[in-house]
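ugh finaly. both done.
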Amino acid sequence: MGSVLSAAKIRELQKNNPPLIEGLLDADQQIQPNGVDLSLYSIQAFQSGGQLGFSSAERILPQLTAIDFMEGWVTLPQGQYLVTFNEIVHLPVEVMALGRPRSSLLRMAVSVGTAVWDAGYNGRSQSLLIVYNPGGVKLAQNARLLQLVFFEIEGGTHAYDGFFQNENLILPNQKDAV
């Protein structure tokens, strides 16, 4: 694997069109020494099971129900939730990323399950929020949940072109396309 991108390199990639991460709420707070914090846009609860086979044609995603914020906050009992982030990720073909929960969440017995952000991926990502704490957790809308760490790929690759390419670019309450 190639090297981890520094804050300086991330800031340089922010100057691209499109930027590495579009829609940062506060770049000074979100760009970290070794990555970028992604913030909470929405939370959904799982209402049904899913299905995954070998081929994409065998994939059935679960039904979801939105959980509303009350005065900018949501209290979640122990359980699993699908979270959508505010920011849109635009990975160049020579960069991939891995996401890790912020350490503050782990200290609350809450974690974020993620997959790989493949080189060339574009979209507003979603991850699994897991509340292990029997007392639950209270989260503010726009809370920083996840640090995305970027890696430069040695030797090159091809751009991601899977099912989730360009996901969630337009959100339900947005008037204009992003």
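ok and the 2nd:
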Amino acid sequence: MNYRMIVLDLDGTLTNRDKVITPRTKEALLKFKQQGGVIVLASGRPTYGVMPLAKELKLQESGGYILSFNGGRMIDCRTGETIFAKELPISSNQRIIHMAKEYGVNILTYEDDLIITPNASDEYVQKEASINKLKVKEISDMEHYVQFPVVKYLMLEEGDYLAMVEPKVKASLGRDYSVYRSEPFFLEILPKGIDKASSLERLLLRLGMSKEEMIACGDGYNDLSMIKYAGLGVAMENAVLPVRKAADFVTHSNDEDGIAHVIDTFIFSE
């Protein structure tokens, strides 16, 4: 099989524990691009938080795509065009923010290139800010402030507690929302039907490619949909167990150039 597209989650997959792309992985990806391959960066991060890695891989110059917000936005890097976007209905904002209060967890969302939250000092807010190089704006009354459409919310709390909150949120919001954890301490709330696989399907249709030509690599729960969907679904060695079980292939960890190993094994060896 000639794989023409590689889709990469970022944290725990493309980048190592220091959140950087190692030289060997970068070299393999640039070589893949030079041979006509398509690179897609697919992340739960907001678009602003994906851009530095897209620039590092020269996607603005030579082409490539960003799937941000777990598929809620899709950007053509060469043109800067937003080719797909779906947001939560404004009518759901107060309800979701109130639910976070009710369950005793913090919440954040995004306004332009800012994180907005009622508790800026929360360690998990700071983690999200650090990952995405975003500033944080503390809003004392989120329910009244957020009167505009947003792509997603993150509920934030220690993992064991958030695991108990997750089914309650799912039950309360019902079938019109996608609710899942991207990290033990991050509970994502997005519009129904938004996940990495569904947005990749739209991209493949646009490009006239098949899923059999696509490799998808990831490590977290929010990567499950695309790993099951892709022609070749790849789990990092450091991936959560359900992702490793769902994958067609388990590569080296993100600290051991797992992405370069995939490219060497399935693309350059052909």
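summary for the 2nd one i guess: The chain is about 35% helix and 25% strand.
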